[in-house]
Design a protein that fits this description.
With 303 residues, this protein is an alpha+beta fold. The chain is built from 7 helices and 16 strands. The strands form 6 sheets. A 4-stranded antiparallel β-sheet has the order 5-13-12-6. Helix 1 packs across helix 3. The chain is elongated.
């Protein structure tokens, strides 16, 4: 026990932490940085040798017994991540420069890998949504209206990612549709995001890592998913958005405004029907329908 206590005092001086291999995708190619093993003092074995030396010779020198520490993730681990398993894109125009910058910033933040059993939460990558992080002011939906807000348009990143994920067997953990339909994606296939309120999450239930690549190019926002070849589904997928109910808007609300000339009317907001929508996922193999799955139910409020 005395020898072990003395040897333990040298452990911190000798310790070298292991470094995991890393993977990034740049210029549409994977770049893997190899792992580096660590080193640590084998306290028990070194103490045993001290005791043996003391008992046999009384004094002398003992060489410290060093053992390697294996990294958690190796280059070989990441080499299994490089098969394309799903891809999806949405389009945008050049009408709002701030929004387009937000799409680019948001897309770049979600380039990452998800380990086996891990849950991806969009908030972990987008936040904080602030001008200091490169986000600009653009239109966001608030209480049925489009108003200016930092990070406007970032929901398109969530929607594009959602549509890539549902092309696989990954598990959706949390997804919420917008309060109003959006123009870049069909009903039932959108996913919204709001800081500290609404998140988008999915889980990797497989035994292999998944890599997310996202970027903007030629007025398109892309999300590509990569993984082990066994994760690529062996069937074709189609989706259908079915409107199951149309909810009429409430009665028009009139408000007096002394700044408007008498007898004139100004339409502040047009009425919108509400809708309940079911999104169905059809699975085909060799041209034959093998399954029909209810992917989600969405409710768009009347206005």
């Amino acid at each position: 026990d005395v020898a072990k206590k003395i040897v333990q005092e040298y452990a911190d001086e000798i310790y070298i932490a292991p470094e995991d291999a890393t993977i990034i995708r740049k210029d549409k190619q994977f770049i893997i940085t190899p792992e580096k093993p660590g080193l640590e003092l084998d306290v028990q074995e070194t103490a045993n040798q001290v005791v043996t030396l003391y008992e046999e010779q009384g004094e002398g020198k003992v060489e410290a017994v060093i053992k390697p520490i294996a990294p958690n993730k190796t280059a070989a681990y990441f080499e299994k991540v490089q098969t394309p398993i799903a891809s999806f894109y949405t389009s945008y125009n050049n009408a709002d420069l701030g929004r387009n910058i937000n799409l680019k910033v948001g897309a770049e933040t979600i380039n990452t890998f998800i380990g086996p059993g891990e849950v991806f939460a969009l908030s972990d990558y987008l936040e904080p949504i602030s001008s200091q992080n490169g986000y600009k002011s653009s239109k966001v939906i608030l209480n049925g209206k489009l108003v200016d807000g930092i990070g406007g348009g970032i929901c398109q990143v969530a929607s594009t990612l959602y549509n890539a994920v549902i092309l696989t067997d990954l598990e959706i953990v949390q997804r919420q549709n917008h309060s109003m339909p959006v123009g870049y994606i069909p009903l039932g296939r959108d996913a919204t995001y709001a800081s500290n309120v609404i998140d988008f999450k999915f889980k990797n239930p497989t035994e292999y890592p998944i890599y997310i690549e996202s970027y903007c190019e030629n007025n398109r926002l892309y999300v590509d998913l990569y993984g082990h070849k066994d994760l690529k589904i062996d069937y074709d997928v189609k989706f259908e958005s079915v409107i199951v109910e149309v909810i009429p808007p409430p009665a028009t609300k009139y408000e007096n405004d002394p700044t408007i000339p008498k007898g004139e009317k100004v339409v502040e907001l047009t009425a919108l029907d509400g809708r309940k929508v079911n999104l169905y996922k059809y699975l085909y193999k060799d041209g034959k329908l093998i399954d029909k799955v209810l992917e989600n139910s969405s409710y768009y409020r009347p206005r």
